[in-house]
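User: hey, got a sec? need DUF2726 domain-containing protein folded
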Amino acid sequence: MESVFIVVVVLVMFFFIVQKRVAKQSPLKESQYKVKGATLNSNESVFYNALVSAVGNNGVVMPKVLMTQIIGPKATDKKQWFIANNRIARSYFDYVICDPRTFEPRVVIELDNGKELDKGKIERQKLVIHVCKSANLPLIGTHMKYSYQVGRLRRLLATHIELIEPDKEVRFCKRCGSPMIIKVASQGDFKGRKFFTCSRQPHCTYTENYNVVFDDLDDEL
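Assistant: Yep! Here you go:
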């Protein structure tokens, strides 16, 4: 039985050695790559554009930032440092807004897409809250609906980022995420009335009532 085990171990070691040598001998040009796709999905992209519009020149919006890029463990003991660092090694923040001059992190934004959280996402949420609290880094949880209510985002961010002030409501198309523009109906039953229409017309024909009422701020996360 022991001899069989030894043979298996030797074969495994032989396999890894051969594989390593083949990889080294293989010319670099034989390894080809391809782009996986967009770094953000459609919902994340729409929210990103809304954040950029809300922040303006007062900050730099960075999506999906690895935690280890902007924070590190406080522990002085090597073992505790390793454990703490390992907890955040593969985790990221949805969005980080940095100072436009120094690129120091100012506030972390976590996006709620409205879907029910599974066990893994709940644990990640707990980690994000703990990390931000420990590092004294402001954390804002926002709902997907704020992708279309830039004025609300400004009001949320104004608490943490100077110079950001509430402004007139800026809207983005709920169909394609492009900025919306105001037009006045020239004919029909609503002649003379203002309405929002997608700036990508005629490619996108989405329109929205100018006087649409949004949810109250009491609904904020």
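Quick note: The chain has two domains: 42-168, 171-221. Let me know if you need anything else on DUF2726 domain-containing protein.
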